[in-house]
Design brief:
The protein is of the alpha/beta class. The chain has helices spanning about 10-15, 45-55, 110-125, 140-160, 220-225, 245-255, and strands at about 5, 15-20, 25, 40-45, 60-65, 70-80, 85-90, 100-105, 130-135, 170, 175, 185-190, 205-210, 230-235. The protein has 2 domains: about 5-90, Ribosomal Protein L25, Chain P (Beta Barrel); about 100-255, SPOUT methyltransferase, trefoil knot domain (Alpha/beta knot). Strands 8, 9, 10, 11, 12, 13 and 14 form a 7-stranded parallel sheet that branches. Strands 1-5-6-7-4 form a 5-stranded mixed sheet. The longest helix is centred in the middle third of the chain and has 22 residues, at about 140-160.
Length: about 260
């Protein structure tokens, strides 16, 4: 049976860990730092409410995901506005895909679509999320900047739900041209126009994918991508919504990785 889970992002875990001896340990626990065992961490109001929502009481065990890895912890005390936990030991378990997966996702005209597909992208193993500005993205920098923190929270929630051992990195938007020099050999672009080339076979190595926003990829864009080494793939005979494409691609990738 899996343990309840709490994710502590950098802004929280950079706070001090107060040990039994009273000394302060700066930073946040790395996976192999035994010096943090039995350290007690004081959590804030939001984390205390989360533990209360999980119906945890002192003595209960849970998993804590830090940037540096996952730990088994124990609730020491909990109240309405605060809580404290004791770090018991690192959990040396890897629940990540065996290759790096870079999701080069289009900025969509309806930015709310990102709220819909981000959980799937995280749960299906993406390690890096790159927002990409396409010709038909209708890019609004102010609107995207205003949503970045919301998207990071969605990523954390999806990590917590799926019990991942790594938090995917979300970067700021890049122009399509930046994909032309992406340093990954295995690169796929979902393209709705039928081509004569069959879909490539997934190789057991790092992987990147992209697809177009609402309205698809412009002819000049697909030509640029293909000339720089991106392989066009088909997702079937129907035309998928921009919000559906990431899950369709990643689901197929995870099935293939499961054969290895």
């Amino acid at each position: 049976m899996s343990l309840p889970r709490l994710i502590l992002p950098d802004s929280i875990t950079r706070a001090a860990c107060v040990c039994d001896a009273g000394s302060e340990q700066p930073g946040f626990p790395k996976l192999n730092c035994s010096e943090f065992e039995n350290s007690v961490m004081t959590l804030g109001t939001d984390q205390a409410k989360h533990l209360a929502a999980l119906r945890l009481v002192p003595g209960n065990s849970l998993e804590i995901l830090f940037t540096g890895g996952i730990w088994r912890a124990e609730v020491v005390c909990i109240s309405k506005n605060s809580a404290s936990i004791r770090l018991v030991a690192p959990i040396n378990e890897n629940r990540e895909p065996p290759v790096e997966i870079h999701a080069c996702l289009p900025i969509t005209a309806q930015l709310g679509l990102w709220d819909d597909f981000l959980p799937d992208v995280v749960e299906l193993g993406t390690t890096l999320i790159l927002p990409v500005v396409y010709e038909r993205s209708q890019y609004n920098k102010r609107g995207v900047d205003a949503r970045m923190e919301r998207w990071r929270r969605i990523i954390l929630t999806a990590c917590e739900q799926s019990h991942r051992t790594r938090i995917p990195e979300l970067r700021f938007p890049i122009p399509l041209e930046a994909l032309l020099s992406l340093n990954i050999k295995q690169r796929w672009v979902a393209y709705e126009v039928k081509t004569e080339t069959p879909n490539p076979v997934l190789r057991y190595e790092d992987f990147a994918f992209t697809h177009g926003p609402e309205g698809g990829i412009a002819d000049a864009e697909i030509e640029m991508l293909c000339k720089s080494g991106w392989k066009p793939i088909s997702l079937g005979k129907s035309i998928l919504r921009a919000a559906t494409c990431p899950a369709a691609i990643l689901g197929a990738v995870q099935i293939e990785l499961g054969r290895k």
